[in-house]
Amino acid sequence: MRLLLCCLTLCISGCNLLSPAEYNKPDNSLKNPKNAINKISSQQAIAVKIFDKTEALLGKPFKDLGIVSGISCQPNRQDPSVSIPVAKKNMLKKASSLGANGVLLHRCEIISTPDCYQAAICEGSALKIINE
User: Fold this and answer.
1) CATH fold for domain 2-19+45-129
2) N or C end of the chain, less CB within 10 A?
3) What is this structure's pTM?
4) DSSP 3-state assignment of 56?
5) What are the extents of the domains in the chain?
């Protein structure tokens, strides 16, 4: 039930946070070498692993950091189609910003929203796995 409420909240409000053009906007800051050095040094990227099944976490102590989600939006029919791998990548970026090194994937699906002709949404629990 809790997961259903989170999904409903995400569907209602998640797509309204950014304009449709910003969902699939490429990060061009790494094209300039000066920006690349600043970006890498200012944000220490944490490798985040996706776990599809809970059995993979058996015997591993971890801390649940909360639910994270990622989205890929197709504003209208003429734009490039949505991509679940892009939605997963966006979800992993959010998990990394929380300090997570793992995500237990709950679901990925393609839906229609008021702001997107189609949207790929992935949702999971951000985890900090201890003694990895």
Assistant:
1) Translation Initiation Factor IF3 (3.30.110)
2) N
3) 0.65
4) helix
5) 2-19+45-129
